[in-house]
Amino acid sequence: MSGMTLAEAAEHITSTDPLYAVGEADIRGVTLPVFTNIPKSLRELQQYGREDRDYSDYIIYQDERWSYERYCAESNKISHILTERLGIKPGDHVAIAMRNYPEYLSLFMGIVNIGAVAVLVNAWWMTDELTYGFEDSGAKLVFADGPRAERIAPFAEKLGITTVGVRDMTDGVTLDGLLAQTDDTRWPTVDIDPDADFALMYSSGSTGHPKGIMLTHRGALSAVFTWNMSLLLPPLMTPEGEPTPPNPGPQSLLIATPLFHVTASHALYLLSMALRAKVVIMHKWDGAEALRLINQEQVTRFVGVPTMTADMRDVAERDGIETPSLQVLTSGGAKRPPAQVGEQAEAFPNAALASGWGMTETNAAGIAISGPDYVGRPDQAGRIFPPLQEARIVDANNVEVPRGTLGELSVKGPNMMRCYHNKPEATTETLIDGWLLSGDLGIMDEDGYVTIVDRAKNIIIRGGENISGLEVEAAIHQHPSVGEAAVFACPDDRYGEVVGAIVWLKEDEVMTGADVKAFLTDKIASYKHPAKLWWTDAPLLKGATDKIDRRALKDLCLSGEVGTEDNSI
Predict the structure, then answer these.
(1) How high is the pLDDT of residue 93?
(2) Residues 99, 317: Cα–Cα separation, whole Å
(3) Which end of the chain has fewer surrounding CB within 10 Å, N or C?
(4) Other Cβ atoms within 10 Å of 115 Cβ, number
(5) Which DSSP string corresponds to 212-276?
(6) What pLDDT sits at residue 476?
(7) Are 484 and 548 in contact (CB under 8 A)?
């Protein structure tokens, strides 16, 4: 049974393994393929994750080791606290605002297991950004660590927000204090519809403020079990005569990206329960520490942004470190520079290099490529994950174009978001008859491989973090000396892209790069600050419709034809 095509292998699994049996369901008026036998809610996923596993270690964080039973007991206690003491009902929005801690995982499930919606707040946001997030989400209860609680405090009373402290937030009501008041570890029993909302996550869009993306239980579970099934594909696709990939065995996953992004929340945390795997949480990114943890905890799968995999390769080469347990080294959130693919494959010979394309809107699932296929096609994003999803390239009228023609990538499946929260027009523009327009421009070849070549909108992806150019422009424009500003992506060896800006000052005004950084400090998160800055003494270049031509300005700035670069930034 080897040498199958991707489609043949997927068909074999769905027809022989009952877990991956495929049927159909009507989802918001669209008939879509679905897995019929997987867990129907994230609570059922957590219960599924208890079966056939070693209970001793599930969460590893610094010197803490949580068993799976402790994790389940704490999440169930939180569920009872929410319903019995804090008055939370199904459908209510409850925010989590903190760095990656073990409590993040138990809070997440404690919230969603009673049918409430977890609002996963970007922990890098400053007060103005947080104010918008809470106004938009409507969350009146937040679990926060110290730094986030300080940023929320200025508007908490005005918006009627109750803060429960976690870890280093010890003032007022704390999670530890609430947990000490109950011994009830029974599983919640509230009915949860598969198509009910479970999370509201924020991703920067092209219109300035981040869009709130509403995700459902079925959407997340469709993604998780699509990835789970993908582990069964390689042996079936191995050509006759070539060594068959070994059984992956017990899995251990390293979480190094923030849990408020789908790379960590879905492709690692939620997947860990389906894989019955151990999760290792890093306190702060450091390439050497990542390699140490990989070897100490026998980590088998790493998913991070390209900057992280590049850091790991550099440390491994410099210090001669081998990682025999590592089976998969995946880069997501942004495109890994093609030149790094071969280098990393050589540095980690036991690991299959992989790259994934997905969005918050798709619950992180989408397109992927791995192993020798990826090493041979390092510039490509890969093929759509079977068996539930479809992909096509469309023109400006949403009509599919011939293979090999540039257009916008559109994807379809049960893993798509339900909507953009409070943005019905944006939802209607993005979701059409079950198809989601990605905003990424690409080409699909005759074999179904997709190459992403550009973005249709002004988004900068810095180390996997989406940044709205318009949001940065709006912040710069708040300075009274600024006449015009344009923001665009600049290439960067470490982060892939960084924020670039060109600014025209009003007459007789003077500013420096240091002034810009200081002004933006309390307005937008530091990763959004311009890393490259040009000044110009003339109004910015406009197009035929009198709109600033950012694409042309980017090319002119980078070539040195326009503006004076401020190297002090």
Answers:
(1) 98
(2) 30
(3) N
(4) 24
(5) EEEEEHHHHHHHHHHHHHHTTHHHHHSPTTSPPPPP--S-EEEE-S-TTSHHHIIIIIIHHHHHT
(6) 92
(7) yes
> Angle CA(325)–CA(326)–CA(331) in degrees, nearest 5?
170
User: Could you say which residues of the chain have pLDDT below 70?
Assistant: 1, 54-55, 205-208, 544-546
Distance separating alpha carbons of residues 281 and 268, to the nearest angstrom: 10
Q: Cα–Cα distance between 35 and 226 in angstroms, integer?
A: 9
What is the location of CATH 3.30.300.30 in the chain? 459-565
Q: Check residue 458 and give its pLDDT.
A: 73
Phi, psi of 339 (to 5 degrees): -65, -25
What integer pLDDT is reported at residue 54 of this predicted model?
Answer: 67
Counting Cβ atoms within 10 Å, is residue 191 exposed (0-12), middle (13-18) or buried (19+)? exposed
Helix axes 146-159, 127-137, angle to 10 degrees: 50
Beta bridge partners of 281: 61, 255
What is the CA angle 29-274-213, rounded to 5? 40
**Residue 554 is which amino acid?**
K
| Contact assessment for residue 34 and residue 23, using Cβ atoms and an 8 Å cutoff | yes
Rg of the chain over Cα atoms, rounded to whole angstroms, equals 24
What's the pLDDT at 546? 59
d(CA 451, CA 357): 10
What is the predicted pLDDT for the residue at 435? 98
Q: What are 393's strand-pairing partners? A: 409
Q: Strand order in 59-61's β-sheet?
A: 64-66, 59-61, 278-281, 252-255, 301-304, 328-331, 352-358, 366-370, 383-384
- Predicted pLDDT at 544: 55
For residue 452, the model assigns a pLDDT of: 87
The whole-model pTM stands at: 0.87
Alpha helix positions (H), 422-530: 424-430, 469-477, 513-520
- Encoding tokens for residue 61? 């964080």
Q: Give, in words, the CATH class of 459-565.
A: alpha beta
Which residues face 248 on adjacent strands? none
C-alpha separations of 511 from 134, 485, 516, 522, 528 in Å: 33, 13, 7, 18, 19
In degrees and rounded to multiples of 5, residue 493 shows phi and psi of: -65, -35
Second CATH level (architecture) for the domain 251-455: 3-Layer(aba) Sandwich (3.40)
The two three-digit tokens of residue 512, written as one number:
């420096």
Where in the sequence of the chain do the CATH 3.40.50.980 domains occur? 56-215
- List the Cα angle 487/492/495 in 5-degree steps: 95
Instruction: Determine the Cα–Cα distance for residues 153 and 133; give it in Å rounded to an integer.
Output: 14
Q: How far apart are CA 100 and CA 281, in angstroms?
A: 7
For CATH 3.40.50.12780, the residue range(s) in the chain are 251-455
